[in-house]
Amino acid sequence: MVDWLSADELRQVLDRALAHAVSFRAAAEDMPQVPSVGFLQALARFDAPTPERPSSPVAIIDELAGLVDGGLMMPSGPGSSAG
User: Fold this and answer.
1) Which pTM value belongs to this model?
2) 65-72 CB contacts, 8 Å cutoff, 24+ apart
3) pLDDT tens digits for the chain (83 residues)?
4) Alpha-carbon distance 58 to 67, whole Å?
């Protein structure tokens, strides 16, 4: 258990991460076959100073999900699907 999050807070964070993952997976069929953002451009989105104050863990998950938008693609080929 993470010491600085209560069980309910941890559940909220993990539920939000799951929601983003499910949303990404559901949209996969309509996604282009290649990312719409190049690797270096996607990587540059993460080049920001560390915040000086704590943020909501749920807000951090949302921010990270937004930063990768357009920079991910579904794997293809044999063995790339767990379902």
Assistant:
1) 0.76
2) 65/20, 67/42, 68/42, 70/35, 70/36, 70/37, 70/42, 71/35, 71/36, 71/37, 71/39, 71/41, 71/42, 71/45, 72/24, 72/35
3) 556 889 999 999 999 999 999 998 888 778 777 888 889 999 999 999 988 998 999 999 999 999 998 888 777 656 555 55
4) 14
Token pair, residue 58, equals 């749920």
Alpha-carbon distance 26 to 8, whole Å? 26
Per-domain residue ranges for the chain? 7-44
Q: Where are the alpha helices (DSSP H) in 1-83?
A: 7-26, 39-44, 57-67
Distance CA 72, CA 39 (A): 9
